[in-house]
Amino acid sequence: MPTLLHIDSSLNGDNSVSREVTKTFRDAWLAQHPDGEVIYRDLSAQPLPHIDALSYYAPNVPAEDRTPEQQASYALRDELAKELEAADAVVIGAPLYNYTIPSSLKSWLDHVIIGGRTSQTEESTVAGKPVTVVTSRGGSYAPGTPMEGNDFAQNYLQWVLGGSLRLDVNFIVPELTLARIVPAMSGLIEKADASRAEAHEQARERAKALAAS
Question: Subunit composition (predicted)?
Fold first, then answer.
């Protein structure tokens, strides 16, 4: 059965553009896979605990030698890694907060990056899986804009997802999402709407392309 792992991390609920676009991707993917399964995690509504020493170091201890505390602490990491390993495709909503990703998404990454299993090995158990990242932002960080170079999310995610986990990463970037909220940005509403519409179209086309591959 085809499986999609769908992760949202925006705190804006129904007002979230990244959630809108990941849903468009999900709906298009399900249209191509009517018998498919979706594993969904809303990291804002149900945040994961920050990784601690027990769970961080437990993978380095042979399973038969782990203490009950180590095993219990590692169980969540194993569950999250298995979800990623089971997925045929992944879509992640990653809005830009304070120039980087939400801490809830960082916690998910900290749990699923397991050295010698999903990461730091040529034989990563998730290598090659297609992941589509919707990295929305309230303003614009495009070349030539005043905020150029201050986006610390996309480069980070490219390295962590593509370099460490060895996933096949594709980005969709809706910009200017605050244009209808911030009065000073009212002159950018048309550009914001165009960027939003383009993001939805890219999500639909990306989902269809993955189904055909």
Answer: Homodimer.
